[in-house]
Design a protein that fits this description.
The chain is built from 10 helices and 12 strands. By secondary structure, the protein is α+β, with helices and mostly antiparallel strands. Strands 1, 2, 3, 4, 5, 6, 8 and 12 form an 8-stranded mixed β-sheet that branches. The chain binds cytidine-5'-monophosphate.
Length: 309
């Protein structure tokens, strides 16, 4: 069926509540045990029908900022191409991206856009591909793409692409300290390897205390259980992150950590009011570029009504 109306997909950012990094594998990746948690910071992607033979194009919505490539090196473009190749059709689509997730911030913004493009093209081209197929196509594009499709709270193994839903009760409140400029994920993993030189990397293990905190919906226990093996590497490349984490702790966060490969720092707080207090304190301290509040878990990539405002 010929596409006629644009499709808008909203996709969340993620925090890794635990990121246990094993030794470097022969393929250059690291085996992980991670606990992904989708939070209410969103990108929106609109897939607009294009003329036959027009191919793929990618545009940034007016308000979006950041250093986002607008060619086939962007994962959203690659995702649209992958869907079309999978079903053997020409990839004619205009993709319009509105960034709410920090670029190169350790919150899987690029993977989120890939997930959004998979869902948007599937809907635009009336394909009805099974969820498993979208997840397989996503895993080939990036380790975090299956989770961006899935959302919620989930345990990731392998490179992070194999998912098991995690039992979590209620809603958690987060304050996110966004930094100026990004950190390259491969550079942070390489720094992690460098810092571990001469030591055997431990086999990654799921943290039981964290799983209990999630099941109980207990933000205090969650705050004590946050762990990220990439944090020393991110801080080594960006020493100012230590100060951000210190300020968060000083102003009453229940716990905090560098999100993924950084440089965004995530702090868990008791409730909305506590989030506002910490956000004000972090903003006033001048240790980060901007501060956002969010809740989690939230849904993965899904079609929403309406278009970009
Ligand atoms: O899979 P993705 O493209 O998101 O990974 C980006 C980079 O992060 C990889 O090229 C690799 O350097 C590093 N990485 C890793 N181990 C993982 C996931 C990512 O070393 N499990």
């Amino acid at each position: 069926m010929r596409p006629t109306t644009p499709v808008t997909v909203r996709v969340p950012a993620k925090i890794n509540l635990q990121l246990a990094v094993g030794p470097r594998r022969p393929d250059g990746y690291h085996d992980l045990v991670t606990v992904f948690h989708a939070v209410s910071l969103f990108d929106e992607l609109v897939a607009v029908p294009a003329r036959d033979g027009e191919g793929i194009s990618l545009h940034l919505d007016g308000d979006s900022t950041g250093d986002v490539p607008l060619d086939d090196s962007n994962l959203a473009w690659a995702a649209a191409a992958a869907v079309a190749a999978h079903v053997g059709i020409d990839p004619d689509v205009r993709l319009i991206l509105r960034k709410g997730i920090p670029v190169a911030g350790g919150m899987a913004g690029g993977s989120a856009d890939a997930a959004a493009a998979l869902v948007a093209c599937d809907a635009l081209w009336h394909l009805g591909l099974p969820r498993d197929t979208l997840e397989e196509l996503g895993a080939a594009l990036g380790s975090d793409v299956p989770f961006a499709l899935h959302g919620g709270t989930a345990i990731g193994t392998g490179r992070g692409e194999r998912l098991t839903p995690a039992l979590a009760r209620g809603e958690f409140h987060w304050v996110l300290a966004l930094a100026d400029g990004g950190l390259s994920t491969p550079a942070v993993y390489a720094e992690c390897d460098r810092l571990r030189e001469g030591h055997d990397a431990p086999e990654p293990q799921l943290h039981d205390g964290l799983m209990q905190a999630l099941r109980a919906g207990d933000p205090v226990a969650l705050g004590r259980s946050l762990r990220n093996d990439l944090q020393p590497a991110a801080v080594s490349l960006r020493p100012s992150l230590d100060l951000v984490l210190e300020v968060g702790e000083e102003y009453g966060a229940l716990g905090g950590l560098v999100s993924g490969s950084g440089p965004t720092c995530a702090f868990v707080v008791r409730d909305d009011e506590h989030a506002l207090d910490l956000a004000v304190a972090l903003s006033a301290s001048g240790v980060c570029r901007t501060v956002k509040r969010a809740v989690g878990p939230v849904h993965g990539a899904r079609v929403v009504d309406g278009h970009l405002r």
